[in-house]
Amino acid sequence: xxxxxxxxxELLEAGCDEAGRGCLAGPVFAAAVILPxxxxxxxxxxxxxxxxxxxxxxxxxxxxxxxxxxxxEVSAAEIDQTNILKASLLAMHRALNALSTRPQFILxxxxxxxxxxxxxxxxxxxxxxxxxxxxxxxxxxxxHRDEAMSRLHAEYPHYQWHQNKGYPTEQHREAIRxxxxxxxxxxxxxxxxxxEQLALF
Length: 201
Hints:
Layout: E1 13-19, E2 28-34, H1 52-65, E3 68-74, H2 76-81, H3 84-98, E4 105-109, E5 121-124, H4 132-155, H5 161-164, H6 170-179, H7 194-197
Parallel strand pairs: 1-4, 4-5
Antiparallel strand pairs: 1-2, 2-3
């Protein structure tokens, strides 16, 4: 099914999405994107449905052709202080704050959002597969986060973050067993099975 270019045509619309909610390590990222109403690219889709090299291609196109875009993050320490849902919504607000153009309407991927000041919004479950602006935000959030995790891999290579990007692969969990946790791990998450988790802290 083709992505819809917008939800409504009267107000300037931004799409929002996040990346990294389910990870054991690293920040959660969010992006906000305002696309031209006639924007179209055949590869654009939910980032999880797009190959890595195509995501990188789309990132440069979106950043060049969008009316405005911004990416923001919330650190692992901040996630531990609140929770991952609040942190994800905070990252979206930070991305919206950083836009060079203020949107008049916000499309949000998922079913939860904290209202953004004086701006109507609509939550759309699986919106990154329905609306172009949310799909574009998913591409930017994913590619910027993957890039950040690859940089962190250089500091902590044994976790193989350049491959797993902080997600809970068995390889990642085995590295936690062998090396313990890094400052970038989310201490509030279940990093290992419960009977092993106690030994981490």
